[in-house]
């Protein structure tokens, strides 16, 4: 068990199985010392978290959905690393997409749900650059989608 997985366990969390793509793309691409993970939606053990921030969801619900995205990103990363998360050098960048009403402006606070978890799990290596944008709809009605770039050894 890697240090990251121990931290997840200490938080009462476990990584899900890496999800299969739902369209014509691959879940991750490794090139050189970087892994690019395709957007992961807010899918958890109770199913897909759907909704629109500022309409049917509040910031805390959005943060929980973003946290699910982060767990799914980590699951894809683990698959890309043949099960060895200890090869992670750094979380380089996260790109966050939030299904929200035009008036909802707390997009960065929602994506903090994922950013905070990356730091909790990977420590300083989890600190990353980031973008956070809103959109009127996401695939399958997801509330949040996040992609990531990771440096590996």
Automatic annotation (TrEMBL):
A Pfam family this chain is assigned to: YjgF_endoribonc
CDD domains found in the cross-reference section: YjgF_YER057c_UK114_like_1
Which residue windows are coiled coil? none
Q: Which SUPFAM superfamilies match?
A: YjgF-like
Give start and end of each Endoribonuclease L-PSP/chorismate mutase-like domain: 5-142
Q: What is this protein called?
A: RidA family protein
Q: Which organism is it from?
A: Hyphobacterium lacteum
